[in-house]
Every structure is written in C-alpha cells, then in structure tokens.
Design goal:
about 60% strand; two-stranded antiparallel ribbon; Porin; 11 strands
C-alpha cells in the first residue's frame, strides 16, 4: 500500500492560490481600486456630502465703498453645517447643489443666522487617491438678526482637498470665500446708505459618500 503524501497537495493548493485565476475576488477588487487614476469618474456618478466647520467674518464694505472697521461680530468665528449633492458630467466636470445653516454671534450677545442655498459647477483634479475639486456657487441667502430679516443673493468660491479612503467614502478639507451683498429698501425705494457687502471665509471638514 502506497504511503499518502501531503506535500504535493499542499504545493498544488498554494500554486493555485497565488496564480491569477486562484486570486480571491476581494483581492482583485482591491488591486483594481489601487489603480485609481484620473478616469475614476464618469457621466452619472454622484456624491452626497455633509460638511461642518467654522465661518470667519472678513471684509465688509459699506455703500460708499469704505471698509467697515467694526462689523460687530463677536467672537470672530461662527459655525456652519451643510448638505450637498454633486453629479458628474464626465471625468472632471461636475454640477450640484448645496444648502447650509450658518450663524455668528455679535458683540451684544445676539445671533445672526443665514441659510444660503444654491447651485454650483466645478472641475476636479485627481492624483491617485487625492482629489482637488474647485467650484463656484450662486444662490439665495435668507438672513435673520433679532426681529429683522433679509432675503438676498450670495456667491461662493470653494477649493477643497480630499482623500479617497475607499470606493464609497472620501474625507477632506474645504476653504471657501462667500460674498453676501445687502441692498435694503426704505419706503419702497433703494437705500444706498444701508448697502453692505459682507465677505466670509469658511474652513470646514467634509465626509463624502460616492454612489
């Protein structure tokens, strides 16, 4: 009776495991994910994002074109949280929408609220797992301070840097510059003396879900 030998079977099993046709499916997916080039995105790809961070009042200009030295925001940092949606039109070009809720405290310990929302378009650069989207947004900005309200327009430019942690998730940092022009009316007529152009700097963190 011949002796049963284990070694040939162990060797054959290892050879099949290490060969391309014996590689587990999840390992193949991981290798494909590691390629991660600039053609990662295609028409129809979508992103949902949640963003949280700080808002810093910067330069305020009055109706005469002069700088408002004291904008009455105290402390100088506020907060913002926002939800966003992005739809890709190609490997780099995208459009989307965003709604935010932001606030700043004042020197009198009151709170100024603004809820900017709008649509944007932009371009994204990809370097392996790092993604650098640039966007420009236009929309409306309902504002509230004590018993006073104002509905105006706003514009925002944003530059971001993200790390693609997995096929579904990426995390990153945003910096943006927002412009809030106020053109109040008095007795149904323009009131240039009350015009103000407020500009805010935002520094936020985002988590994005890709689908």
């Amino acid at each position: 009776m011949q002796r049963f030998r284990v070694f040939p079977f162990v060797f054959a099993f290892c050879l099949c495991w290490l060969s391309p046709w014996g590689t587990p499916t999840h390992a193949q997916e991981r290798d494909e994910w590691d390629v991660h080039d600039a053609e990662l995105y295609a028409l129809g790809d979508q992103i949902f994002s949640i963003t949280l961070g700080g808002v810093f009042p910067t330069v305020f200009v009055d109706g005469s074109g002069g700088i408002v030295k004291d904008h009455n925001f105290r402390p100088p940092i506020g907060g913002v949280i926002s939800l966003g949606y992005k739809h890709f039109l190609g490997a780099n070009l995208f459009v989307g929408g965003d709604i935010s809720f932001a606030f700043n405290n004042t020197i009198a310990k009151n709170t100024y609220f603004v809820v900017p929302f709008g649509i944007y378009g932009g371009w994204q650069f990809v370097l392996r797992r790092f993604e650098f989207p640039l966007s420009l947004m236009f929309g409306m900005a309902p504002q509230r301070y004590m018993d006073s309200g104002y509905l105006g327009v706003f514009a925002r430019g944003r530059a971001s840097a993200f790390y693609r942690f997995s096929p579904e998730w990426s995390f990153g940092l945003n910096t943006d510059w927002s412009w809030y022009p106020q053109r109040p009316m008095r007795d149904g007529k323009p009131f240039p003396e009350g015009n103000v152009d407020g500009q805010m700097l935002g520094v936020t963190l985002s988590a994005r879900y890709h689908f």
